[in-house]
Amino acid sequence: MCNKDKELLKRALNGDISAFEELVSSNEKRIYNLCLRMMKNEQDAQDMAQEALLKAWRSLRKFNLKAAFSTWLYKIAINTCLDELRKRKNNTQSIEEMSEKGHTIQDDKAQNFTDDSDLKYGITQAMEKLESKEKLIIVLKDVQGYSYEEISSILSCPVGTVRSRLSRSRKKLANICIEMELYPSTLRQNICKEAK
Amino acid sequence: MNCYKCKKIIDKMHNDCINNNELQSVLHHIQNCKSCAMYYSVMEQMLNDLSTIEEQELPKGFHNKLHFALQREVEKPVKAKRGFSTAVKVAAIGACSILLVTAVISILPRQKMMDAMPNMAMEQAAEEPETEGIMKSDMASLEEAELHESKEFSSADGVETRDETDNEMSEDNAKAESEVACGYFEHGSSTVLILDVENIDEAYETLIEYFPNPLPDSSWVIGDIKEPSEYRQIRAIMSLPEAQHIGDKIALEYVYDIDYYAEVFLEYDNYKEEIADLQNIGYVYIVLK
Fold first, then answer.
1. Which residue among A21, A79, A157 places its CB closest to the CB of B67?
2. What Å distances lie between residue B182 and B131, B195, B288, CA to CA?
3. Are residues A112 and A184 in the same domain?
4. Cβ contact (<8 Å) for A64 and B47?
5. Which DSSP string do the residues of B125-147 spell out, in sequence order?
6. Which of A36, A143, A183 sits opposite B45 (nearest CB)?
7. Which residues pair with B186 in a beta bridge?
8. A interface mutation test: which of B7, B66, B238, B283 has the most A CBs within 10 A?
9. Do A195 and B31 touch (CB under 8 A)?
10. Which of A18, A31, B45, B158 is the 20 to 30 Å CA partner of B171?
11. Which domain, by its residues, includes A25?
12. Domain-embedded: residue B30
């Protein structure tokens, strides 16, 4: 933590809201995007990001100066999302119920993702079929590009575990992509290339 | 090379740890194997797509909303701390001690007198049957209360009673455990204790300090794994700064992937590699009973 951040933290600990806002400003966007990938829609993502930042404000005194502030914020955001997803798990609607109410996957596409590419839309849909922890590790490594060491400290587990868990999650996602026939044309091209 | 090995190397390839020989053998294999070629291509395409998912801008009004929420937090009156304060605990312990001492003092002289003069004591007992009866019932209730207290696993709110298996634990250890643990839950036959410690050294020191004598027929194993036959009673003790109270579900949610590790222990033979990983974890400590 640099001196400027330490100063901001000190002020925030004394109740200075603007100091806290400045302290978290560089991480807000990443936290929001992490929540967006975890929660699927913008409104929930915004709520979770806000909740995570409020939790950080409330427990600022617990922050260990030896740790990275961004990692600490990320941990809080992840736990906030996982808590919320667990709470909702029992109340999830089945696809049939959603269809009966006229809620289609196309609606989700229009509402939740602004990606133009169908493939990107497909991959985000495939990710929704993963468990939240599997999705989380893929978002951290393959979407947000964190290193194994950073993920290890965010999730508080050793690098070896991160690697093995990531490997399992990717394999599962790849199988989902195959089942969903996400890449048929691309695959044919690749297989032809390799045959030549 | 078979397909299983090929797919394993493809996974390794994307974990950035593959040598040239392995790369060549994979490329050679996928030229002749459609299934592996498909797996390889899907993996490549999938990782490429994932890496090109763009970050979205913060929604409008995000900062204002956060600012108002923070202001509300600042203006909110400070909540009273959950549980009892240290002063109240000390006062309660003091009061209990005084009661206990008073009870002992009131019993001892009577007992001595009865020992010294059995006949006289018998006469006196015959004369005062009601007093003796009250005293006996007081003692019985006191003993019952003490027994009940030793069975409880601490915490001001959300008190839970321990399993019968834990009755084997000595009273001292039970008491010490209640002071140390700030959360616990059952997972199958395992009990997971949560300690408020920063690192493995502190956890070790805490264990030594509070559990100087090992539990009956048990041994502490920290960062080490014993034979699978000893897995029936596993206790995982971990550092968790966020843990608050016993039975506090919110605090327990912070235990990342504990189910996974519990499964790992119970299916030892299938997860040898992962167990090796456990030895490097700073926050999980295993105690086998």
1. A21
2. 43, 6, 20
3. yes
4. no
5. HHH-HHHHHHHHHHHHHHHHHHH
6. A183
7. B191
8. B66
9. yes
10. B158
11. 1-92
12. yes
